[in-house]
Give the backbone structure.
Amino acid sequence: MRTYVLGLITNRLGSSALTLLIVSFAVFFATAMLPGDTATILLGQAATPEAVAGLRAAMHLDEPAFFRFARWLFGLLQGDLGTSYVNNVPVAQLIGARFVNTMRLAGIVTLIAVPLSLILGITSAMFRGSAYDRIVTILTIGVISVPEFMIATSAVLLFSVYLKWLPALSFAGDVASFWQVLKIYAMPVITLTFVVSAQMIRMTRAAVIDTINTPYVEAAILKGASRWRAVIIHALPNAVGPIANAIALALSYLVGGVIIVETIFNYPGIAKLMVDGVSTRDLPLIQSCAIIFCVGYLALITFADIVAILANPRVR
Amino acid sequence: MTISTTMPRRLSYRFSWVGMIGFAIILFWAVIALLAPHIIPYPVGEIVDEDYFGPMSSKLLLGSDYLGRDMLSRIIMGARYTVGISLAAVCLACFTGGALGMAAAVVGGWFDTVLSRFLDALNSIPSKLSGLVIAAAVGSSLSVLIVMLGVIYIPGAYRFARSLAVNINTMDYITVARTRGEGISYVVFSEILPNIIGPLLADFGIRFVFIVLLLSGLSFLGLGVQPPYADWGALVHENIGGLPFGAPAVIVPSLAIASLTISVNLLIDNLPKKIRDRSA
Amino acid sequence: MENLVEIRDLKVEATTDAGRRIEIIQGVDLDIAPGEIVALIGESGSGKTTIALTVMGYARPGCRISGGTVMVAGKNMLALSEGQRAKVRGLEVSYVPQSAAAAFNPSKRIIDQVIEVTRIHKLMSPAEAKEKAIGLFKALSLPDPDGIGNRYPHQVSGGQLQRLAAAMALISDPKLIIFDEPTTALDVTTQIEVLRAFKAVMKKSGIAGVYVSHDLAVVAQIADRIVVLRGGAVQEVGTTAELLADARHPYTRELLSAFEPKPRGESVPVAPESRPLLQVNSLIAGYGPVQADGLPLIKAVQEASLVLERGRNLGIIGESGCGKSTLARSIAGILPASAGNLTLDGHELARSARQRSREQLRELQIVFQHADTSLNPAKSIEEILGRPLKFYHGMKGKARDARIDELLDMVRLSKALRSRTPAELSGGQKQRVNFARALAAEPKLIVCDEITSALDTVVAAAVIDLLKEMQRELSLSYIFISHDLSVVEAICDEIVVMYNGRKVEEITPAVSKVPQHPYSKLLFSSVPKLDPGWLDRLERDPELVKTYVQG
């Protein structure tokens, strides 16, 4: 049995690796579609043909696209993220500290959103159809239906414009006291928690409802088990896999949310770096940031799938 | 989104009032988008207020923007871009993805395996990230935006249509059709499609919401619709400076987006239900 | 109060998709004395399970108990709070579900689920409960009573799970147990063991029972009294002996008559020089990756050979997993055989339907068990029947319309059904349309895969009569696949018995009407008879049971 489970997990990891390969291929070729010649764009229209040719050779732009992809991928595997077109420093250096900032933001949001969503998602599934369930459902659909920037601007309007509790903008460098830190993180964290929790609550609720509607939960109730016992002892252990998947999928909304939130609150993370990179068309920077986000997301999904495999009694 | 109100024999439809409100708001925005140039009170580019971020007044119903232009006119014209681009993109995504998905389910074999593998991998790239990468590479003209938004949502539409079609494909009536000697196109269009058209239309609506949200998000970042055009997301972007004053110019476009997306969700959750009691 | 259960004027409402409320139980009265086993019998939709569940004060989601009283041991279950009802459930009244496989929690060990009742109601210590459970496992003749509880539900067979579910119901020494079709999902040879175990335990401990079933012969073995239900109302009540001997209600008589052996029509004499209609030679078919020898990993059918003469019928019988449906599918070319050959009317058939000519496909039609999944719900009956007419015969317009009417008439359906969709028809009507579609092709041979298994007894009998009639009129042949011996005997000239992918015996009436092979004997003798004493008198060779029954 143990080797069977190991086999399943190896299989899942292999599949993730293949997905990652396809994703990096897609990212590379999307950016390589750039109309016009990169070297000309970098050097400007006035550059001499010799200079352009020299740069092309130096950047390996004269090689077939597939070789460039292989070279780029090989570099990535060795930790070489390339050199920024715009300010000519290694991309890794640009990303470094900002990566930590983004991870810190994402970590705080996860720590708040996951328990909150589990409680709300599971209880609303248990009391399906009640007033409580309806309020939770309407709120989550409301949050899911609007753009992230609207949550962010609403938070600013409420907390800084009307209530004047918090500053509208945050700078993570300025951390004199605990109070300051709280003020800086409050708004981005509130916004992201809303965005992520809404998705997570909805998916958790659906996963739990699926397991509540099974004959074995009915059988437990007919054994005299209370509603709580039927859900906690019988439904939840079987919902672990689906719930893990729901959480992983919902956390992927962190990526979209973080891009908006870092921009609007001027937070020095990699998402902000990437958005700035798009305006300056700094392709190596964009490629690296995109790959970092994709790896993060794939790791989450893979982890959730492995949890689901381990939680399934049929393979245990 | 059109709703068939035909009532075939003995069948009637029950349409909840929540769904009707959703439908009415969608219809409202559709009409606004169609008639926009004829109903705007002021030309969109004209500066009509000496003050910027002006408040709501009887002259400027929704106030003025960061240059003193009429917000109402800009919202009305913005409806064209938000609704028009999203609708074109969702058609591209759902028709392409839907057709590929059904074909993959019926044909099976390596065609299905390779296509599913590839599109599922693309599906694992968060949509906003794809938007940023493509915007960086090829810019964001209106036609690029439509194709980009459509392509980003093809894998999702494919996956949804395929999973529905795979379920139908295991039904005995499909086996019956195949052992009768029917070809693939008959199986897809006559046997499978009529059974999944309802969920496919609902998916069309949901994907429309996704696309509106993504387009607004990109425009908000300044990477979507570019001046002189402006969709609702771009209106929030250019007027974000008014946020500390709570200016209507930054609030109203957000509300416009929310009204559209929430209405579509309400309509999908409360679609007219067929009443078919056997013991009628 | 002398009765354990007294139900008076019980009414249950259900909410339809459109939000309308309809009364599905219309004023039912029912009494159960202590220690008495009462059977609720009726077709699907008769309300038998709904009534049984109200004894526990429970209604499934979408249903609501809207009136009446349900007195259980002096308490009105409908007047109690949810918490008070929970105290009765599992303790005084317990429940054995139709599918124990679905009703056991897949992620918990069996023993923990069996003794959960004692934990919920704080009856005894876990150690005592385990000991008691093992005693019950022994009484229910489960193999390895000490160890079986430590397994997970997916690690034991269906017949064992059904008995484990009974142990779960018995552990609290309830006054009443509700059995909800507890043997319907089992094979006949397994059913015997489970029924015997149930009966022995119930009689020994004097527990009352409600036994819900659609099968009169099964009920006759175990029930003291039978309540016949239809459309949510009681049709007839009587002791088992009374009811079987002297049924008064027409519906009960219909149910009984479905059990009477049908005289088989005179079989057509086979002209000696004519070639057989279908020949199957050493067919091998299965699933899974192809091995080095070119055969699939899992061989569901191994070296099966059959001969079917023109105008005759061939029955293929066996229990679940014996390969009978796989054989049907490879004859139809849906699952191409890996080896062997097929000849239809003297012409070699390609193994895969894709390689067969349109004419060959037309001549051999297949009809499936579930009319629900065989008819496209998005199409009208007219479209469903019209397609093969156009596809095979190029019929259009008026000619096609006339032919559709003719086909509906042949299967005894009203022309008014033409424009309906399958969802608007009853189960029996759907199966008739399903059959009419095969007739539309004007085939020589129709393969019928369990076509009566999903139908209620009375409806199934009518469908069999229709099949026989069609055969006389259209000179058809059938291959009739079923797990139900009485159905196969009613229509087939020859019967092939399959076990474990192999044909174990071919019973030709000309040679012998009695099975010779030990498995066939076991199978034939396991079919319940209407006689209430049948189960007690039935003797089975324990060696045979050990060899062939996986229950």
Remarks:
- The mean pLDDT of chain C is 87.
- Chain C touches chain A at residues 53, 56, 58, 60-61, 82-83, 86-91, 94-95, 97, 99, 102-108, 116-117, 120-121, 152, 154, 168 (CB under 8 Å).
